[in-house]
Amino acid sequence: MAKTLTGKVAIVTGGARGIGAAVAKRLGADGADVAISYSASADQANAVVQELKAKGVRAVAIKADASDPKQAAKLISDVVAQFGKLDILVNNAGVYAPGAVGDAAADTAALDRQRVVNYDSVVAGIRAAAPVISDGGRIITIGSCLGQDVRFPGIADYAATKFAVAGYSRGAARDLGPRNITVNVVQPGPIDTDMNPADGEHADGQRAALALNRYGKPEDIAAGVAFLAGPEASFITGTTLSIDGGFGA
Question: Name one GO molecular function term (predicted).
Answer without folding.
Answer: oxidoreductase activity
